[in-house]
């Protein structure tokens, strides 16, 4: 199996703050990866390590089989869009494309011009006068036109309206098909991620709490609902993830490789929120208990 990102016991410390702690991941290529976690969970740190902008304190990381930013060729294989889709406000759209062509050996000018034309952007307009959605589209175009093998996107749609977000997410699906590129996308918007992502990573407290292909994860997570106070009959291998209680009803989300009669399926949003709730109410969990899917 070819891996887009592979980490072993990866950690990053900023003075006294441990931003990422003992992170082990194996992300296959060809995936759209949703990276989820509360503020301060380590998402931006992980993406910064993957793009080569920062170096790990300990452990290792490989991107497309090599250390990040180890060479100019390796840098060209990864496109990166930081938070708020930063562009150069005084440069025109044309200036951005010309700069991209100068800096990237595999630059696809025809692809870039077609995307700009399809998105209705004015080549002569300065980036500072574009709307938030237009700036995001410009930044995504520049990153994708590098013709790399991995797109790293750090909260690119956080400030966009729903219509602009939908267009941005639709483009990601097109990129995977047309450019044969892997994508790792950090976002708080679980509904958007559920539409496009086929691999999930949940980070909290700087640690991985769950990761794997979405289909595999959903196949082993269940919701069981009953009257408050009634005991649950669970398989021996079942792991309790989250419990919700009301006056008359109790609901639990569990992970189990064994079928649970009468249990309901969960969707990506419910499963993710269950892990995030557990992480923020009980603190970090050990790596063995936390990992599922590709990491187990």
TrEMBL record:
Keywords: ATP-binding, Nucleotide-binding, Transport
Xref: CDD domains: ABC_DR_subfamily_A
Domain of life: Bacteria
Pfam families in the record: ABC_tran
SMART domains: AAA
PROSITE patterns: ABC_TRANSPORTER_2
Ranges where the ABC transporter domain occurs: 5-230
Gene Ontology MF annotations: ATP binding; ATP hydrolysis activity
PANTHER family: ABC TRANSPORTER ATP-BINDING PROTEIN ALBC-RELATED
The protein's name in its UniProt record: ABC transporter ATP-binding protein
Organism for this UniProt entry: Micromonospora sediminimaris
């Amino acid at each position: 199996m070819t891996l887009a990102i592979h980490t072993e016991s990866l950690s990053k410390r900023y003075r006294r703050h441990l931003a990422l702690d003992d992170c082990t991941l194996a992300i296959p290529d060809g995936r759209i990866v949703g990276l989820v976690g509360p503020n301060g969970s380590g998402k931006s740190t992980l993406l910064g390590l993957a793009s080569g902008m920062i170096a790990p304190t300990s452990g290792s990381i490989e991107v497309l089989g090599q250390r990040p930013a180890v060479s100019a060729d390796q840098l060209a294989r990864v496109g990166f869009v930081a938070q708020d889709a930063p562009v150069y406000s005084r440069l025109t759209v044309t200036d951005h494309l010309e700069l991209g062509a100068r800096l990237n050996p595999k630059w696809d000018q025809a692809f870039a011009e077609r995307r700009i034309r399809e998105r209705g952007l004015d080549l002569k307009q300065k980036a500072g006068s574009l709307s938030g959605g237009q700036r995001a589209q410009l930044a995504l175009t520049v990153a994708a036109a590098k013709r790399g093998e991995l797109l790293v996107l750090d909260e690119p749609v956080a400030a966009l309206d729903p219509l602009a977000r939908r267009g941005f997410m639709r483009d990601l699906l097109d990129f995977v098909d047309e450019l044969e590129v892997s994508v790792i996308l950090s976002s708080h918007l679980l509904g958007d991620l559920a539409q496009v992502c086929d691999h999930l990573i949940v980070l909290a407290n700087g640690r991985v709490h769950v990761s794997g292909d979405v289909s595999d994860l959903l196949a082993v997570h269940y919701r069981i609902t009953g009257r408050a106070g009634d005991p649950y009959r669970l398989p021996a291998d079942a792991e309790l993830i989250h419990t919700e209680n009301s006056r008359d009803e109790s609901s639990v989300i569990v992970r189990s490789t064994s079928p649970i009669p009468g249990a309901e399926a969960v969707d990506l949003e419910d499963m993710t929120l269950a892990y995030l709730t557990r992480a923020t109410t009980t603190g970090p969990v050990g790596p063995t208990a936390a990992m599922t899917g590709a990491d187990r």
